[in-house]
Amino acid sequence: MTATATIERFDALTADPDTVHAIIERDGVVILEGLLSAEVVSRVNDEVGAVLDDADPDAELFNPIMKAFHGPCTKQVTSACAISPTFATEVMCHPLLLALCDRILLPSCARYQLNLGHLLQRGPGADEQLLHRDEAVWSDVPKPAPELQMATVIAFVDFTRENGGTRILPGSHGWPDRRQSPAEQFAQPPPKAEQIAYAEMPAGSAVVYLGGTIHAGGSNTTEIPRRGAHLSYCLGWLRTEENNYLAVPPRHRGQAPPPGAGTARLCRSRQHPARRWLSRYGAYARPDRAPRARRALTSAAAQVSQNRGRLCTSACPQHQWFAQELGGSDQVPPDRHAIL
Question: How do residues 303-321 score in pLDDT, each as one tens digit?
Fold first, then answer.
């Protein structure tokens, strides 16, 4: 058998977030073994079982491309945190996952948010999924850009190569083609077999990767469905793939036990003042829109003194990135900017 790439593994109970983050920066991916206890895995499986049983893998989706992307043997159920209270409070808000988000996403936004949390059950006969980068959904973001997303696939049964364990290309977050459009990326030659790693891991473990790391679901050649959850977080100024304002009922945000405070925080967004013009103009910095962008940035700077939120104490990478996009630093708000 051809040798394959490998993914560095950590015991989630003892892992140091800084060490895990360093490996994610280097490889674009890690496996966290034992992220969830057997009791949490069992509770989530009990809470989502009936919904997954009733799901139709051949159901119409909003886009035929997405239907082909998942394939006819995969059951997909969106808004897992609205179905499973345990998922909302003990999976989505797991301290280690949020600690990694703090390191990967928080340098580039006022606050990160839940992008999506859905259940994916790859049934017997499921084919290999198309290799892709999750960040392609934000294809209009200018390149280079800060990290937009941290994603995970969490195993609720044992993942093996045979039952469709996630395929990952370690190091692909640093490949030059990441700066190309999604269409150009898909036109690249397929990777070599030895570049592909398989996220084989016991139930309760998670493979964590960046939005720029190439990956895909594997083929299921067994008779047992492979149940997992795809959970991802993104920068707070991005539009999310799932509308979590509607998908997550208020009872899961406001009446959850103490860990659920994170549920409320992840399911609503706040923007940097410097990003507010995105909503007004609907596009990123372009030469024809630069004057309006500069006016918006100047206005944001003027609002800092009036803002009641807390203030950063160091230069903001977000503003540094804006300065680069706008072609100069003279119009960027001061270092001490408001976080709404």
Answer: 433 433 333 434 455 455 5
